[in-house]
Amino acid sequence: MDSILKNINNLQISQRGLEMPSSPIRKLAPLAYAAEDRGIKIYRLNIGQPDLPSPPTAIEALKHIDRTTLEYSPSQGFLSLRKKLSGYYKRFNIDLTPEEIIVTNGGSEAVLFAFLSCLNPGDEIIVPEPAYANYMAFAVSAGAVIRTVTTTIDEGFCLPKVERFEELINERTRAILICNPNNPTGYLYNQKEMNQIRDLVLKYNLYLFSDEVYREFIYTGSPYISAMHLEGIEQNVILIDSVSKRYSECGIRIGALATKNAEVRKIVMKFCQARLSPPLIGQIIAEASIDETEEYAREVYDEYMERRKCLIDGVNKIPGCYTPIPMGAFYTVAKLPVDDSEKFCSWCLSDFVWRDELTPYGSEGETIMMAPAAGFYTNTNLGRNEVRLAYVLNKKDLKRALYLLEIALEKYNHIDKSGNL
Amino acid sequence: MDSILKNINNLQISQRGLEMPSSPIRKLAPLAYAAEDRGIKIYRLNIGQPDLPSPPTAIEALKHIDRTTLEYSPSQGFLSLRKKLSGYYKRFNIDLTPEEIIVTNGGSEAVLFAFLSCLNPGDEIIVPEPAYANYMAFAVSAGAVIRTVTTTIDEGFCLPKVERFEELINERTRAILICNPNNPTGYLYNQKEMNQIRDLVLKYNLYLFSDEVYREFIYTGSPYISAMHLEGIEQNVILIDSVSKRYSECGIRIGALATKNAEVRKIVMKFCQARLSPPLIGQIIAEASIDETEEYAREVYDEYMERRKCLIDGVNKIPGCYTPIPMGAFYTVAKLPVDDSEKFCSWCLSDFVWRDELTPYGSEGETIMMAPAAGFYTNTNLGRNEVRLAYVLNKKDLKRALYLLEIALEKYNHIDKSGNL
Fold first, then answer.
1. Order of strands across the sheet with A386-390?
2. Which of A58, B218, B350, B354 could crosslink B328 through cysteines, CB 3.0-4.6 Å?
3. Is A112 within 8 Å of B58 when comparing Cβ atoms?
4. Candidates 3.40.50.300, 1.20.1260.10, 3.90.1150.10, 3.30.460.10; correct CATH number of B8-52+295-417?
5. Of B4, B14, B105, B252, which to mutate for an interface test with A (greatest number of A Cβ within 10 Å)?
6. Averaged pLDDT for residues B351-372
């Protein structure tokens, strides 16, 4: 019994808790708050929080909720919402019945429940990187291991060759995870690449977790090829979805996990029942959003299309900067003429400030916030001179942010060279 | 490589997925749907879904939400809500700053994140049983093991002696979990029992996870002793909370995890950042609810108080039935004159139906639904003749349900004795 007492005053933190990555996007937040406290206006290129209005039909539905008791909804989500989602997927030639759709607390919970249901501790998932950092967090939560195949900015972030995947495949490999269109790169997989993934999934009998929350935002006219379109792996595919990005409804926390694999659904439902139900009000809002006019979707699309052009053109005009042209989502990864983008991004918030005649009245100056790309790679040597830029600012602010970026780079590199940083 | 191919057409389900318990409360659902399809009215004594109205201030706040973009909120929850919660806890002499409070997706997520942050796979938690079945589900999710000390209906579900806890304590024991007031028993721990728990926590340096979501509902005038009131274990206590029950707001999915342990909060926040944010609209509603008048709370309290009397008196009048008097929450566990309550509860839905002059017009008859208590015990031999009854029905329906229960028992036992079931 004495040995049990030895830990006294030293309560244990779980190993997975220690291993959980801190969000690379939120890591600079304290520096940003401090800058704001000094009266500095920050142009946020760092976050994926859409600024555009949510669908008017959704806002109307919210205003007209006529309930006196805000009770639990079904663990799988309202049937009416699942029917609407089924109809929505049909527009993209994705055949999913309401029974095959499970409503989740955002896309986040869909990823977590997919991992918890399909993976044992130590099981491996292959993910092309750079990748959304929270996949790693959910893998750690489930005790699973993320193995990455690296895509590079110089190759435009295209999918690596089959051999690169096969090098990683071993008896613990259980899944491939893709995000398509991609966060953070904006890359969209073509038919050849999707076929390559299908063949791998089939050959090694893997799950394919496919996060397709940005499907509405494809700007190149290229076809959207869902994992659900691939023939012969119907039982392997688990679709991750969310209304957050397409309807600017990140706050309502409504996502979905959809699969034709009944066995997986049965297990996922056990996790769903344990957490009782997805948010009631969010489901009502999401359901109304699906009924929004095509005009809304077109306006949102056109706006992102213009911002994307503005951002890409602007970045590529700054000396020493380069970004490939992203086909989808609302991000791009850009290479900057710095050795360490994390250091540079911190410096922008803590040391850099700009004032001129365009600086808003009452502000002490302006700066920019970006997400250092290193957080999207597992290999810490990669992405050191890259940043993720999101175009969720209006075009005027986007242009101003690019202007500030150019000046910041000049000042930073000047200071850096003279050794004064 | 061939060995990797061996699983083909046999995708793996995770071990934890297989181990996840199915909800004992929702297991009878298919029989209930079938009964409803036959036109039978079901009086639901089985669920903890409050039927009373949510606070009028909350419903007003919902109607007046004036946002055009439904964006992410902070991962920790709105500071304004955390300030309100801090004030709310002060009413109960619980000292928690807004920084010590983390808003979660219902109490469910608070339990899950507490387990994920504090427990390694194989670590053990001691829980008095019968216990809320989903604790087991969250333990399985985190790879932790629930060990139970049994409380009994004959002793009124009081806390077992210290020795019963110490018999279970070993080098993998990391925590004690209590639910106070208790779901499913309605038991409320007294000062002596809370001191016993404190001493154990202190002696073996354990976490104390304390689920106190029913604190508003204590009917005996006995003091509410929060784990947060116990001296000397401030760093060990993790409070689990939820607005679901006290404001009849189960659907908004707003709970909280609160602890004075900064190290634990830091880790929990990593899980919070991974899932981005708790529901936006739910937080607005929860915040408004805390401002509701005392009159609302009193009316809700008085209503439950009367229902409790109605249920307890009614059950104890039925021949062969017995329930101790629950001090809090809105449940009680009752012993029925049957060998197998699961069989009896199923029979009520599939075979029993009652009609008389009070049967509602247009209905094909009436029956009752109860939660077999076996699902709240880990030892499958326990609770076999017990059910959990919730009093979330109005008094008229509650009385009718008790009337039906008495008849059902008579018929069931008669049939049973004649061997015709």
1. A331-335, A386-390, A371-372
2. B218
3. no
4. 3.90.1150.10
5. B14
6. 95
